[in-house]
Structures are given as C-alpha cells and as structure tokens.
Amino acid sequence: MADNKRIDQATGTSTVGHEWDGIEELDTPMPRWWLYIFYACIVFAIGYCIAYPAWPLLTRGTPGVLGWTSKGQLEAELAADQKAKAATLAAIDRLPIEEIEKNPTLMHAAIDGGRAAFRINCSACHGSGAAGSKGYPNLNDDDWLWGGDIKSIQQTLLDGVRFPGDDNTRMSQMPAFGKDEILKADEVQDVVSYVRFISHQEAASPSAKRGSAIFANNCAVCHGPNGGGNRTVGAPNLTDKIWLYGGDRDTLTQTVTNARYGIMPAWGQKLDPVTLKMVAVYVHSLGGGEAIPAAAPATTVAAK
Amino acid sequence: MADPRDLTNGEEHFFAARRKVFPKKIDGTFRRLKWAVMAVALVVYYVTPWLRWNRGPYAPDQAVLVDLAHRRFYMFSIEIWPHEFYYVAGLLIMAAIGLFLVTSAVGRAWCGYACPQTVWTDLFVHVERMIEGDRNAQIRLDRAPWGPAKIAKRSSKLILWLAIAVSTGGAWVFYFTDAPTLARELANGTAPFVAYATIGVLTFTTFTLGGLMREQVCIYMCPWPRIQGAMMDERTLAVTYKSWRGEPRSHGVKRAAEARDGNMVLADLATGATRIGDCIDCNACVAVCPTGIDIREGPQIGCITCGLCIDACDDVMKRVGRPPRLIGYTTEVDARLESAGKPALPPLRRLLRPRTLIYLTAWSAVGLAMLFSLGTRTRLTVEALQNRNPMWVRLSDGSIRNSYSIKVRNMEGRPRTIELGLQGLDAAIWTEEGSRQSASRAVRLTVPADQVAKVSLFAAAPATGDQRTTITFTARALDREGGAASAPSFFERPE
User: Fold this and answer.
1) Which among A215, B135, B175, B202 could bridge B24 via Cys, Cβ 3.0 to 4.6 Å?
2) Closest in A29, A131, A141 to B396, CB measured
C-alpha cells in the first residue's frame, strides 16, 4: 500500500499512499505551531506534577510543592464559611431572643441554623419535620404542654423536661391512678368516659357523670376544673382534638392506669447558647408559635 | 528536546512552518465595504457599554449590561431574568439561522467582512502597513538582517498591536458591570481581579489570533468554514476567477512565443488561431489576498470571500483596457451559463430557492415567536411549593393546616404591594409574620423592586372534605398598572 505514494498535482503535496475506491488522502503537514502547543502542554504537565499531588508512591502520593490537598481545601472553605457566619451568630448571641424575630434577616438566619441543629439533635424523637409521633409532641401544631411563646420554648430546650441532673428542669408527675390503686378499675373507666365526653368524642352517659366527680377530686388539680390543662405543670388540655398518646378508650385507660410522662434532655448541657436560641426560633416559626403573654409567666417557679 | 526544524527540514515533512503572507494595499468597492463594516463593528463594540438607559432608581442605568453578579441581563428596555434565559437562547438560535441564511445566499460573507477574526486581523494588518510599509517593503524588511531600524519598526508595531489587544480586552469587561465605575477602578488599580484577568486573557488571544495567527485561525482552527459547506449549493455566491475569460493567460502565450518563432505566434493571434485570455498573470490577486491563496486555482477553504482580489483585478483590467470582474462574485450555475456564452440568472431567481426560503421562514418564525412572548410576558410570577414534611397538621380545634413556601417575583423596577389569595378552598391563610388569629382570605406583602420575596404561608381549613383538594394561589399587584399571576397547588387532609 505504502508504495502507492505519489505527489498530488493540484496541491503539490504527497499522498499517504492509501487508496479507497479512487479516494486518496493527502499527507498535508501539520502547522508547526501545533507542535509548539504540544511542547507547551508537556511543560505544563511537568510543572503540574511538581506543584500538585501527582505520582502514586507506596503509602501515599507525591505531595507537590504547593502542599494542596482536597481535605485542606475543604477545611479552608469551612473556615471561610464560619468566618462569614460569625457576624450573624454574634448578633443572634447578643440580642435577647424576643428581639431576633423583629429582624427578618437575623430571623431567617436563625431559622436556617435552627433547622440544621434540629435535624441533628431533635429529629430522633420529634421527626425531621418536627411532626412528632406517639408520645413525642408535634411541634407544628398550636397545642403546647409547657408554653408556646418563644421564651417558654427556649426554657424547655435549655433545661429539658423531667431530665435528671438539671435542677431547673420542667418537672411534674402524673400519678398512676390504676396501678397504684388510687382509683378502682371501674372508676378509671368512668374518668375515661368523662374525658371522652369533654373532648366531644362521646355523648353524655351515667358513667361520664360519675367520672365527673372523680375527675374533680383527682385530676382537676393539674388538668383544670374543665380539663383545659395547665402549662405550668405541663398538664395537657384534654378538651382539644390533639392527643399525644391517643384519645380512644383503650389508650386513655392505659394512660389513667399507668400515667404518662415524657422526658426531654436539657439541651443547655449539650448545645451552645447561640444554637439553642436558633433551635427555639426555628420551633417557634413552625406555625404554632405564640406571642409572649403580657404578664411575665412564672412557669419555672411554679413547676418546682 | 529536538529542534522542531529537524522534523520540518527532513525528508518527511511532518510539520510545516507558516507561509508568510504580506497582503498588498488595495483600494476599491469591496475594500471600502470592508472599511465600512469594520468601522460599524468597532464603534458598536467600543461604544455600546457606555450608552445609558434610565430604568429608575432601582436598576442600573447601563443600556446593555450582563449583570452576572445579580443574574440579570439588561438590553435597553428589555430586562431578562435567569428563568427567561430562553430569550437569550432564542437570540443565539436566530443568530445561527441568520448566519445559515446569509451563507446560503451570499456565501462566506460572515468570514469575509463581519467575523471578529477578520475585522481585527484587518486592523492589525493595517497597523503593520502603517509602520513597515506596503507588501514589498515588508518583504524587504523581513529579509533584512536585524539592525536598529528593523528593531525599531518591529517593536513599534508590536507595541501598537499590544495597545489594540489591551483595549479590545478592556472594552469587553465593561459589558459586565457599570462601565464608568469600572473604568475608574481600572485606572486607580482597585478593580476586581477577575476584570484584570479577563483583560489579560483577551489581550493574549487578540494579540495572538489577530496579530500572529491570522489566516491560520480560519484555515486550521475555525470549524465554521467546514460547516458552511453544508449550506452552500450551486446558486451560492463565491469569489470566482472566470477562467473561461482569463485563460489562456497572456503570460503563458508570451512564453510559448519565446520558445517558438515569435512572429508566427503574432500571426496566429492576428488570424485568431491562437486566442489569449484577459488574465495577464500579474499576480495582483495573489498579492492582495489576506490568506495568501491564488483564487485562480478555484474555490478553496482558504478563501474567505473578502473580495479584495476583485478590487485588485478590476484595477488591472481597467489599466489594460479590458472589462472589469474577471474575478467576481459568481455562482456555480452562472459560471456554467456564462462560460457557455449565455446570460446569468436574474438575482431573484438566484436568491429565492427552497434552501434560503426555509432558512428565512425558520429565522422569522423564531423572531416573531420571541417578539410575541416578549410583548405578552408578565412581570409578576408566583410559585407555590407545598411543604410535605409534615403534609398536614391537626390543630387543637380539629381543623387541618397545610403550609406552603411561596415565591413572588416582582420583575418591575419598583417595589410593589402584592395581594396573595387562595382559590378552590374555603381556607384562612396567614404568613409566618401573622398568626391564625389574624388569618383571613388574603394576605398582603411588599416585594422590593426587581426582587423575589419568599414567604411561608399557612392555610387552615375544616377537617371534613376531600383528602386532596386542588387549589390555586393567586397574586395580584395592587398598584395602578396591576398584573396578576397564579400557581396551582394542593391542600391535603388526613385519610
């Protein structure tokens, strides 16, 4: 094949010597600057190998004189991110919590930071969307055991609920009326009838009527004479549509017999004050957040 | 490392050095057209960023601005947001189809007149002639040994080229930020690094491509000449040497006369037994060619159809008393007709053919569609994203609440008050700043000029109803000009 090389008349260029059905290829020389670019690429590659990690060795690669690592780059970017956030975090730290929500920029920063911290620390019990589950309150709704204003939420977060090892923790304990034989089994059923009556789940009945008197003597001290609850002791409102454990007869019977009391860690021992504040702002922003009552709530004092 | 010349000088020529081109100065119709196109192109390029356009207090006043930092593209009265990028895509499609149309009708007009590579190379060649003189002087200078005069000429040429290259890159950056501010910053050295880097890169490319590479860009690097072959046919204009008129060249006849008995040849000429063509083989067409080709060899990739050889040949034809356009813009069909002694096709028959008409239709369809959508586009949009974690929340009175992330885009250059409403469901709505106590059928929010407002919206409705209700969020601007937008969404209830 290669001996078919000839000089093309029209161009004066040699052919490569291949021929396909009369079609031949010219052996046009490459432009010389192309070669220079190739040399420049070699020079660049040598420089790159010297400057950056390049050659694999037995235990690790050549480090390169610039000392660049992807891990180092990540650390630098994280440090730059921390630096960029520092001013906002300092402002959140400085302001009292009720002032943060008056500043939209700070509030949105706090919600974002709080959401991130919530996902890491709180979602195990309350769920990633803070919707809770049986025994773990839904933080999106407008029903609060210990208060839904931002200061109460912050307080709950700081010292937790019934958390051993925190003297200021929110404390109360429901008696196990059935197990401890404070009430007899039929009396428990009467109370359950009454609770289902005041929560509009059952019509009035003789059992509910009997339960009314038992409720006034045993339950009203915490849950209120009308069953409306008492946030100073974390006693839930029994008349609304929200049930932490369930409002059906079986669950209520279990609740009255064995008592219920959830525990939440005192996050003040684990989270720094800025993160704690941001989580409080986030929880308050979920839709059920309440305004701070005009009179300063004396919740913690009463709980002791 | 081996010297590359070892390779190029060997028996096998793997690599070829650039064949030096010294285009000769010429004046004529097409040279003047090229000057005019160059003037328009350069004026548009350098002046555009300095034009002002009043958009009120909330938007920049630069007429043409690609504001990458704020993701806006301003072109006189048109403002384009990132989500409207299809207008830019449409412009690019129009530019491409327009180029197809021009190419199929008049050949490589883009290459010959309007391509930046051509315009800037022309400018660099002109500067070179100013410093080093015309073709012959340049050839002499190139062959002359290095001495003070050569060094002075070469260095002053390179300095002028560098100045052009710097100002080319320098003008480019003004399209991306406020031009007067950037000019001040560039002058006192406080401009952002990316501005200097961009100027540096463009200075390098302009200097290299326009000054050093020149026709090699068109021949080796640019894909467009290769693609153009698909748009050209036998009725596309191309610069053509009319060989049926030019051949045999008188030079060749004269040489033949020298070889034989001169008198006999003259006698043949007198009786018409030997015909000589109009081409006197003066090589003027080759001397002026900026890509250094011989057009008489026929159509070739190196011909950018700039028409300078036409000017050169017309000049010679006039002097030897022959009709002009021995070299001229001709189609293949016309060339066949003319060589057979028939008249050329009328211009309209040449232009109006399915290929050009299809390109024209596609081009104007895209243009009209863009104009229509530009005229009817809305400057207010609303987007509603239903929050799905949790999908619904039961409130203490038993009603169901859904929450939504709402984005309202105010694309006007002034703040507007927008009323958000919800249709398709009897629900009360409130934002994160309000509360359920203050909930109503509509909420108002003020969206800053040329901004997107993001707001969390809550909607509460009785628990009885469909598990999934289709709803529509509406946004209405409450100012005099008005404007409305809507977004579909859902309201979910527990099973």
Assistant:
1) B135
2) A141
| Paired tokens of B1 | 């490392």
- Judged on CB neighbours under 10 Å (0-12, 13-18, 19+), B467 is exposed
Instruction: For residue range B264-305, list pLDDT tens digits in order.
Output: 666 666 666 667 888 999 999 999 999 999 999 988 889 999
Q: Do A131 and B436 touch (CB under 8 A)?
A: no
- Specify burial of residue B290 (Cβ count, 10 A radius: 0-12, 13-18, 19+): buried
- Model pLDDT for residues B11-64, shown as the tens digit of each residue: 456 788 888 999 999 999 999 999 999 999 999 999 999 999 998 888 899 999
* Cβ–Cβ contact B435 with A under 8 A: yes
Query: Do strands B15-16 and A30-31 pair parallel, antiparallel, or not at all (unpaired)?
Result: parallel
Cβ contact (<8 Å) for B458 and A287?
yes
**Dist CA B352 CA B336 (whole Å):** 19
Q: Cβ A142–B396 below 8 Å, yes or no?
A: yes
Residue A268: closest CA among A145, A158, A121: A158
Q: Where are the domains of chain A?
A: 2-51, 86-168+264-303, 185-258
ipTM computed for the complex = 0.81
Please check whether residue B13 lies inside any domain of the structure. no
Structural domain that includes position B138: 19-85+104-223
Cα(B17)–Cα(A111) distance, integer angstroms: 66
Name the CATH topology of A185-258: Cytochrome Bc1 Complex; Chain D, domain 2 (1.10.760)
Question: What pTM did the predictor assign?
Answer: 0.79
Q: Nearest CB to B393: which of A10, A128, A138?
A: A138
Q: Are residues B72 and B199 in the same domain?
A: yes
Query: Does residue B172 sit within a domain?
Result: yes
- Distant-in-sequence, close-in-space partners of B286: CB < 8 Å, separation ≥ 6: B292, B293, B294, B295, B309
B195 shares its domain with B255: no
Q: What is the token pair recorded at B491? A: 């309201």
Residues of B in contact with A29 (CB under 8 A): 8, 13-16
**B157 and B243 co-located in one domain:** no
Give strand pairing partners of B430: B458
Q: Are residues B250 and B205 in the same domain?
A: no
User: How many residue pairs bridge chain A and chain B with CB atoms within 8 Å of each other?
Assistant: 81
Answer whether residue B228 is part of any domain. Answer: no
